[in-house]
C-alpha cells in the first residue's frame, strides 16, 4: 500500500513553462467512484496504462494502490467509463528541490491548470513558487474524480 500525500494549487501564470522537464499526455477515466474511494484508469502517452485505486477522504492524504495493466485492456475499458474522460498534459517542474506536477487540462476542462506537490513535508509558503495561485487542497471540485463526474469548476468555465 502506498500513501499519497499531496497539496493542490491553481496555477496563475505561465512562468513555470520554461522550467518544465517533461510532459506526458494523459487520458484518464473512472470506472467506479463513491465516498472515499475511486477506481481509475490512466493511459500515458498512448503507450502505457495503469489501474489506480484510492481510498480515504482526508484532504492531503489517501491510500493509493497502482498497477500496470495491458494498454489494449485499458482502451477496452473506456467503454465502461463513468462521467467524462479527462484529457490533460502533465508537466514536471522542479522548484527548490521539490517536484511539481502541473496538469494543463484539455477538452471541456480547457483553461484549467492545477499544480500538485506530493510530499509529506509542510512546505512553508515562502518556499512555494510565485506561479502558484490559490491552494485548493481539500476543495473536492478540483480533484480529478470530481472533474470527471461533476460539473466544471467556475474557474474552468
Describe the model.
The chain is about 10% helix and about 50% strand. The chain has helices spanning about 70-75, 145-150, and strands at about 1-10, 20-35, 35-45, 50-55, 60-70, 80-95, 100-105, 115-120, 130-135. Strand 3 and strand 4 (about 50-55) form a beta hairpin. The longest helix has 7 residues, at about 70-75.
Which labels suit this protein?
9 strands, 157 residues, globular, 8% helix, single chain, mainly beta, eight-stranded antiparallel beta barrel
Task: Report a brief summary of the structure.
The protein is mainly beta and 157 residues long. It has helices at residues 71-77, 144-149; strands at residues 2-11, 20-34, 37-44, 48-55, 61-69, 82-95, 98-105, 113-118, 132-135. It has an eight-stranded antiparallel barrel.
Mean pLDDT: 93
Number of strands: 9
- Poorly predicted spans: none
Sheet/helix structural class: mainly beta
The proportion of strand residues reads over 45%
* Widest beta sheet: strand line-up: 1-5-4-3-2-6-7-8
The run of helices and strands is EEEEEHEEEEH
Helix content: under 10%
Distance between the termini: 36 Å
What's the Cα radius of gyration? 15 Å
Number of helices: 2
**Shape call:** globular
What characterizes the major β-sheet?
A: 8 strands, antiparallel, barrel
Q: Secondary-structure map with pairings?
A:
Blueprint: E1 2-11, E2 20-34, E3 37-44, E4 48-55, E5 61-69, H1 71-77, E6 82-95, E7 98-105, E8 113-118, E9 132-135, H2 144-149
Amino acid at each position: 500500500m502506498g500513501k499519497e500525500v499531496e497539496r493542490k494549487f491553481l496555477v496563475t501564470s505561465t512562468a513555470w513553462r520554461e522550467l518544465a522537464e517533461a510532459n506526458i499526455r494523459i487520458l484518464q477515466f473512472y470506472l467506479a467512484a463513491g465516498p472515499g474511494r475511486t477506481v481509475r484508469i490512466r493511459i500515458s502517452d498512448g503507450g502505457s496504462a495503469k489501474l489506480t485505486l484510492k481510498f480515504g477522504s482526508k484532504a492531503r492524504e489517501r491510500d493509493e494502490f497502482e498497477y500496470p495493466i495491458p494498454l489494449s485492456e485499458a482502451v477496452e475499458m473506456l467503454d465502461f467509463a463513468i462521467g467524462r474522460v479527462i484529457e490533460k498534459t502533465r508537466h514536471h517542474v522542479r522548484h527548490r528541490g521539490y517536484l511539481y506536477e502541473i496538469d494543463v487540462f484539455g477538452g471541456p476542462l480547457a483553461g484549467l491548470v492545477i499544480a500538485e506537490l506530493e510530499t509529506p513535508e509542510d512546505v512553508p509558503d515562502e518556499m512555494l513558487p510565485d506561479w502558484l495561485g490559490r491552494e485548493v487542497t481539500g476543495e473536492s471540485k478540483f480533484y480529478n474524480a470530481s472533474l470527471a463526474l461533476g460539473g466544471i469548476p467556475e474557474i474552468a468555465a
